[in-house]
Amino acid sequence: MKITLRSAALFGAAALVVAACGTAPDDETDSAGAPDDTADAGTEQVDFQACMVSDAGGIDDRSFNASAWKGLQDAESELGVSAKFVESQAETDYAPNINSLLQEDCGLIVTVGFLMGDATYEAAPENPDQLFAIVDNEPEEAIDNVKPLLFDTAQAAYLAGYLAAGLTETGTVATFGGIPIPPVTVFMDGFVDGVAKYNEVKGDDVEVLGWDKDAQDGSFTGDFEDQNKGKQVTANFIQQGADIILPVAGPVGLGAAAAAQEADGVNLIWVDSDGFETAPDFAELFITSVLKRIDSSTFAATEEALSGEFSNETYVGTLENEGVGLAPYHDFEDVISDELKAEVDALREAIISGEIVVESDSSPKA
């Protein structure tokens, strides 16, 4: 499939596609199919277990949960801890899965996702000796044994929006989400603002389908599981002329990739993890990915708990601390002009310095 991007020669790159989600284990597992002896040679094994509850997107979502689990696997390899997860199939599994891990002598329980908040904040006060970390949620009042792990992904999505506006051939790009919750809409806000910045700088009129930031209203599939919904909403965008899509929907985004695969000259920007690496069989579709370094945060939370230095202080990933960012351009490295790359790099530095403030009602306030 031929790529036709504003900054590229027509022969400059290959096309892209995303993989279908692999089958995840049904029950608890120690290392998601990896051998039990995952620690690096010479790493001393310690009596500490890091545990995780996935959200309903599944452990093998090539995105959100997979990134959180990678952090625990890295801790297993580098710190000598053992790691295990319990996979949720539905929201009704959250509380039972947390309760099951309370019986497993976990040094730390990581709950993954905004929707895990209620179950986590019910269990934590009732088990004050159990340490928790939660991704993408924060209690209204701090809980001594809960560390929130948050990410200002609007900053990195702003860069992605500017990049997409600079590459579109049709003058139309699009984004959609799984569920309208802050960890999703924060990406969409930043993406829309990045496109607006490009239009301001270049005097252009690139249109964004799927999200009205002012109204906080847009396109959502209603879950993070049904890939067919992602394929349909993306097909609708393509019919309206969009040639670059940002799905913020976990495995549902794989449906977006299927729709892009069937179209000519349509590409994606992935979120959370580097899609080029997490979906290697279909990596060619991804211009870049808006990285949310959940893996680094879950690793750090595990290290804190292991060392006895656990804190309930909120972690916020930003461009400055490299908790969020853009993935490498990979196959698009020679497609994107040096001028556009330099503009994106300059915007990154302007955000870090405070010269540009990326605003979203969904950004972490801590």
Low-confidence blocks of residues: 6-38
Order of helices and strands: EHEHEHEEHEHEEEHEHEHEHEEH
Percentage of residues in strands: 15-25%
Q: Could you give the order of strands across the largest sheet?
A: 2-1-3-4-5-13
Rounded to an integer, what's the Rg over CA atoms?
A: 20 Å
Integer average pLDDT:
89
What structural category do the secondary elements indicate? alpha/beta
- Number of DSSP helical runs: 10
Q: What is the total tally of β strands?
A: 14
Largest sheet: 6 strands, parallel
Amount of helix = 25-40%
Shape: globular
Counting copies of identical and different chains, the oligomeric state is: single chain
Distance between the termini: 44 Å
Features:
single chain, 366 residues, alpha/beta, six-stranded parallel β-sheet, six-stranded mixed β-sheet, 35% helix, 17% strand, globular
What secondary-structure arrangement, pairings included, does this model have?
Elements: E1 49-53, H1 64-79, E2 82-86, H2 94-101, E3 108-112, H3 117-126, E4 132-135, E5 146-151, H4 153-167, E6 172-177, H5 182-202, E7 207-209, E8 211-212, E9 217-218, H6 227-239, E10 244-248, H7 252-262, E11 267-272, H8 275-278, E12 286-292, H9 294-307, E13 315-317, E14 324-326, H10 338-353
Parallel strand pairs: 1-2, 1-3, 3-4, 4-5, 5-13, 6-7, 6-10, 10-11, 11-12
Antiparallel strand pairs: 8-9, 12-14
